[in-house]
Amino acid sequence: MHIGHIFPFYFAKYLQEQTGTRVYIPFSDDEKYVLKDKSLDEISDYTRQNLRDLLAVGFDPDRTRIIVDTADADVVYPLATTFAKEVTQSTVDATYGEPENIGLSFYPAVQAAHLLLPQLVEGRHPTLVPIAVDQDPHVRVCRDIAAKQRYDVSKPGALLSKFLPSLEGPGKMSSSDDAPSILLSDDRESVTDKIRTYAYSGGQTSIEGHRAKGGNPEVDVSYLTLYYFFEESDERVEQLAEEYREGSLLSGELKEVAAERIADFLESHQARRSALGSLEEELSPYQLTEAERQAARRRAGYPDNALSQQ
Amino acid sequence: MHIGHIFPFYFAKYLQEQTGTRVYIPFSDDEKYVLKDKSLDEISDYTRQNLRDLLAVGFDPDRTRIIVDTADADVVYPLATTFAKEVTQSTVDATYGEPENIGLSFYPAVQAAHLLLPQLVEGRHPTLVPIAVDQDPHVRVCRDIAAKQRYDVSKPGALLSKFLPSLEGPGKMSSSDDAPSILLSDDRESVTDKIRTYAYSGGQTSIEGHRAKGGNPEVDVSYLTLYYFFEESDERVEQLAEEYREGSLLSGELKEVAAERIADFLESHQARRSALGSLEEELSPYQLTEAERQAARRRAGYPDNALSQQ
Predict the structure, then answer these.
(1) Structurally, how many domains does chain A consist of?
(2) Helix and strand element counts for chain B (H, E)
């Protein structure tokens, strides 16, 4: 995981702290398998590592549920089946292009199960899905399902976020070969190194030029990183921008500020991650309870204890 | 359920008795939902009724496993996901025509999970799927998956059976409006009534004609029903055919023999069905054990206790 992957989760945690909302986090290990050329072993390892990072974010377990598709198939698959009936293959072809395999054909139904799960567990209520714009099609397909009103659910809303700039800078095509990403596991030295070496700068090519003309914070990756996430104080961010624009703050200095803030963040994330016990134990308070599973299946239309009735 | 539905199960039971083989019976409640215009409540009721009829057949619980897709989703869905990656949407379109919804797109992967489940639970071994010819495409798609050798499984074999004639007779298009089917719940009187009224006869139109020219057992539904299933003694069947051909056995008499055998069969089936206790209790010895579920997931490539590893 690189730092861009974890931001939405810290953002969701922020929303939870500010509003007291419940947060549902689905893990699409099934999609990863049908989409990528990876073995189930690799994907399972990936899932475990990601879950540890996710747990390190520090959600409130009483108000957070984490769902892993293949591990929670007892609830995910029945819900996905019911929603699958509402989605034509033509809709999928038109939305995503013709799927390469039938796992991908079915996948929008699993996404719908994810997006409607909060309402199926807890009853109809407004929901908000914080995503980047590339995930919007899933929400739109799901809104169509909700709009058919066969289930007592509201359409989920999408909260679209910008992509964070990669180290190569904004407006530049991201090519993963150009520059490394900052990983959640990076130490202070690696972070400083990567920022110094790779972070796209909005400054001038010489110190003299910079002092004279100033830099452009709008395209400076160090500045943008601080602006979007790592510098909490808006005043401090504005001050940095101003100093940068007027040339009193050099690119190298701005890079040091960014590297320090990112490393501080990573150190505290890593400390929380290291303090975690066994994954099974740590995950357990975040898992759907039996009552919640049953409520979700019931609201999707499955009779309670279908096989135990006469 | 009409009598045609239950024959394959009695046939499988016969094979089990003769060979000691293990029998796996999947219940596609998910397919019924995405394929038909029925509610989950109706389908659940249907499943319960069918399971009771299935249990009345009297399989050996030690050597028989019954799987209900949505109830056993913890094992069915992960397996289906892995097989879904092996099947292109084009294969499905070419095999079944373009699916109406994405549940049907995905369904061949669930079928593959059914057909390969015995080998995933117990290890690689020859398997045989007794089906009518209309189910053959599922087996062929699954054989292609097995042939890729990504899993340690042999291709499943299909044992294709003829369709039993409907009451309107062989070679005639079956139209469900023309004549009622004989239901598993029919009593002796209804059976006799239906056979007398509707069973297509190979006899002559008058008794005199029949005595003179004889009947044709090859198209006579009463005879065929006895031949295929209800008269166990081959000698007795041959004797009936001969008497019918030479005109000493009248159509009406043959119908009485058939009605009696069918009613005998149904009475004993119904008696076993009535003697069943609660479905949950009766089904329990036929369900996959935890060890079997884990073995199946493991052989499909899922690591044991994926979430409890470090």
Answers:
(1) 2
(2) 14, 4
Q: Is residue A216 located within the same domain as residue A97? A: no
How high is the pLDDT of residue B309? Answer: 59
Taking the CA of residue A113 and the nearest CA in chain B, the distance in Å comes to: 13
* Chain B residues near residue A77 by CB distance under 8 angstroms: 30, 69-70, 73, 76-77
- Mean pLDDT across B100-106: 96
* CA terminus-to-terminus distance, chain B: 50
On whether any CB of chain A is under 8 Å from the CB of B34, the answer is yes
In this complex, do A102 and B89 lie within 8 Å of one another by their Cβ atoms? yes
The reply to whether B94 and B43 lie within a common domain is: yes
| Beta pairing class for B157-161 and A128-132 | unpaired
Do B110 and B92 contact (CB within 8 A), yes or no?
Answer: no
Q: Are residues A7 and A150 in the same domain?
A: yes
Residues A122 and A25 in one domain: yes
B112/chain A closest Cα distance in angstroms? 12
Q: Is residue A216 part of a domain?
A: yes
Residue A182 lies in a domain: no
Whether ipTM exceeds 0.90: no
Q: How far is CA A74 from CA A70, A150, B42, B113, in A?
A: 9, 22, 20, 16
Same domain, B132 and B52: yes
In a domain, B169, yes or no: no
Q: What is the DSSP letter of B2?
A: B
Residue B194 and residue B125 share a domain:
no
Q: Do A211 and A157 share a domain, yes or no? A: no
A284 touches chain B (CB under 8 A): no
| Averages of pLDDT over each 10 residues, chain A, 310 residues | 88 96 95 88 91 97 97 96 95 94 96 97 96 90 93 95 78 59 95 94 92 94 93 94 96 96 97 96 96 96 73
**Residue B64: both structure tokens together:** 């028989």
Residue A143 pLDDT: 96
pLDDT average, residue stretch B243-256: 96
Residue B225 belongs to a domain: yes
pLDDT at B175 over 60: no
Contacts of B286 (CB under 8 A, 6+ apart): B55, B59, B61, B64, B65, B66
What confidence tier does B176 reach under pLDDT thresholds 50, 70, 90? Answer: low
Cβ of B81 under 8 Å from any chain A Cβ? yes
Do the Cβ atoms of A82 and B306 come within 8 Å?
Answer: no
Give the closest of B68, B73, B301 to A40, CB-based.
B301
